[in-house]
Amino acid sequence: MSTPPTATVSAPEAPAGEAPLIPVGVLGARGRMGTEVCRAVDAAEDMELVAMVDERDWLFNVADAGAQVVVDFTRPDSVMDNIRFCIDQNIHCVVGTTGFDDERLATIAQWLEPKPDLGVLIAPNFGIGAVLLMRFAQEAARFFPSVEIVELHHPGKVDAPSGTAARTARLVAAARRTAGVPAAPDATRESDSLPGARGADVEGVPVHAVRLAGLVAHQEVLMGAAGETLTLRHDSYDRASFMPGVLLAVREVRTRPGLTVGIESLLGL
Ligand SMILES: NC(=O)C1=CN([C@@H]2O[C@H](COP(=O)(O)OP(=O)(O)OC[C@H]3O[C@@H](n4cnc5c(N)ncnc54)[C@H](O)[C@@H]3O)[C@@H](O)[C@H]2O)C=CC1
Ligand SMILES: O=C(O)C1=N[C@H](C(=O)O)C[C@H](O)C1
């Protein structure tokens, strides 16, 4: 990707006899993830990067450029307006930005109701390894009385805990509830001498957030029982790790109307 990420680029043209390229717009194009997504879309043989939009650019560029799919890696405080705009413009959305709770998801599902052919896919993590870690954690959760999550990220990260850690905690908590496993025996905070010492409480699962220079995106799920522990760990050393998942989502979102959360179903999980 050599062009500076700002406004509208060219409209896509498919070579004769070949499937049309997917016209893709990127929101947050100057950010850490957006830059990498622009590069990946530009290099994908079945896609055309038609618009690169960041905070000060005109959002209508993505519509004017004919984007069929928009990829959003912006900020939790911008993303809802962006999704609303794309739905109004009949543009499918692939969203990696974090900050989604049940209320936000319900709002998006409502926005999609009058648009039965439109897809919005929101994934807290597009890394295949991270998705697998979440699945393995769900599987293991019912066998261990104790569970804690440690997420570790670069210091520029705007939110804490990470969207991935929050989702992992909720999935683990749900798996434990389904299996009738009681809350972790050490989850009580009443005797903490400093508030926060035991991390955030996400549905009874303690989640600890580390911000450290040199890191990209990492997560550990720690489980313990009498005389043994199980540690599941995933490391994204480079943002390239998210790109196969993002490109898969761009290809699939057009045939998956409605709201999809996570890329698990796209991976056959
Ligand atoms: N789902 C996943 O696999 C991953 C998700 N993320 C999430 O993606 C988001 C972005 O992360 P980074 O790229 O590290 O942040 P960043 O701060 O480097 O980039 C965000 C970019 O969005 C731009 N922006 C803000 N509001 C905008 C708007 N309304 N329209 C267009 N552009 C706008 C900013 O100017 C900035 O360039 C975060 O929520 C992060 O947690 C990050 C990595 C992987
Ligand atoms: O901000 C990041 O970097 C990341 N954000 C996502 C999250 O909050 O889970 C995904 C990954 O952890 C990287």
TrEMBL record:
SUPFAM superfamilies: Glyceraldehyde-3-phosphate dehydrogenase-like, C-terminal domain, NAD(P)-binding Rossmann-fold domains. Keywords: Amino-acid biosynthesis, Cytoplasm, Diaminopimelate biosynthesis, Lysine biosynthesis, NAD, NADP, Oxidoreductase. It catalyses: (S)-2,3,4,5-tetrahydrodipicolinate + NAD(+) + H2O = (2S,4S)-4-hydroxy-2,3,4,5-tetrahydrodipicolinate + NADH + H(+); (S)-2,3,4,5-tetrahydrodipicolinate + NADP(+) + H2O = (2S,4S)-4-hydroxy-2,3,4,5-tetrahydrodipicolinate + NADPH + H(+). Its EC number is 1.17.1.8. (S)-2,3,4,5-tetrahydrodipicolinate binds at residues 154, 163-164. PANTHER family: 4-HYDROXY-TETRAHYDRODIPICOLINATE REDUCTASE 1, CHLOROPLASTIC-RELATED (PTHR20836:SF0), DIHYDRODIPICOLINATE REDUCTASE (PTHR20836). Catalyzes the conversion of 4-hydroxy-tetrahydrodipicolinate (HTPA) to tetrahydrodipicolinate. This is 4-hydroxy-tetrahydrodipicolinate reductase. The lineage of its organism: Bacteria, Bacillati, Actinomycetota, Actinomycetes, Geodermatophilales.
